[in-house]
């Protein structure tokens, strides 16, 4: 009779262990999904901040460019010297670059280029000495404790 109870206990405990493993696996999956969503939300907020910063820069730099342009054109007309118009060219490139980032499709082009690099030029993405291993991380952690 004792062996019958013992075998039933083993069966029940085995079933509970299996359920615990499944439950833990589901919890880990849920936690991983949450981390992925969290990291994506953080990334999106950082990108939105970057675009907002670029738009603010365009507003301020555009005002500077307009004032500088008016001043340089006036100086060029007054002195009949076209050399005053020279700075407008590089300043215009800077303004165009920032405007493309702030209002154009520059982010789409950057994303497409990043995807191309990730698919076609993966050798550029390798870390020196390869991917860190758990063993290397533990050794570094232990070494930092000794210091």
Automatic annotation (TrEMBL):
<keyword id="KW-0812">Transmembrane</keyword>
<dbReference type="Pfam" id="PF10166">
    <property type="entry name" value="DUF2368"/>
</dbReference>
<keyword id="KW-1133">Transmembrane helix</keyword>
<feature type="transmembrane region" description="Helical">
    <location>
        <begin position="57"/>
        <end position="77"/>
    </location>
</feature>
<protein>
    <recommendedName>
        <fullName>Plasminogen receptor (KT)</fullName>
    </recommendedName>
</protein>
<dbReference type="InterPro" id="IPR019319">
    <property type="entry name" value="Plg-R(KT)"/>
</dbReference>
<dbReference type="GO" id="GO:0010756">
    <property type="term" value="P:positive regulation of plasminogen activation"/>
</dbReference>
<dbReference type="GO" id="GO:0005886">
    <property type="term" value="C:plasma membrane"/>
</dbReference>
<keyword id="KW-0472">Membrane</keyword>
């Amino acid at each position: 009779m004792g062996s019958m109870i013992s075998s039933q206990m083993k069966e029940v405990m085995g079933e509970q262990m299996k359920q615990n493993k499944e439950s833990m696996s589901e919890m880990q999956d849920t936690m991983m999904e949450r981390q992925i969503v969290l990291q994506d939300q953080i990334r999106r907020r950082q990108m939105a901040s970057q675009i907002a910063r670029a738009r603010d820069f365009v507003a301020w730099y555009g005002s500077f460019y307009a004032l500088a342009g008016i001043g340089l054109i006036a100086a060029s007309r007054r002195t009949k010297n076209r050399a005053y118009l020279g700075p407008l060219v590089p300043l215009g490139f800077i303004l165009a670059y920032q405007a493309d980032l702030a209002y154009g499709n520059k982010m789409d082009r950057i994303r497409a280029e990043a995807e191309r690099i990730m698919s076609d030029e993966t050798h550029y993405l390798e870390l020196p000495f390869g991917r860190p291993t758990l063993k290397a991380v533990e050794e570094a952690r232990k070494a930092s404790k000794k210091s």
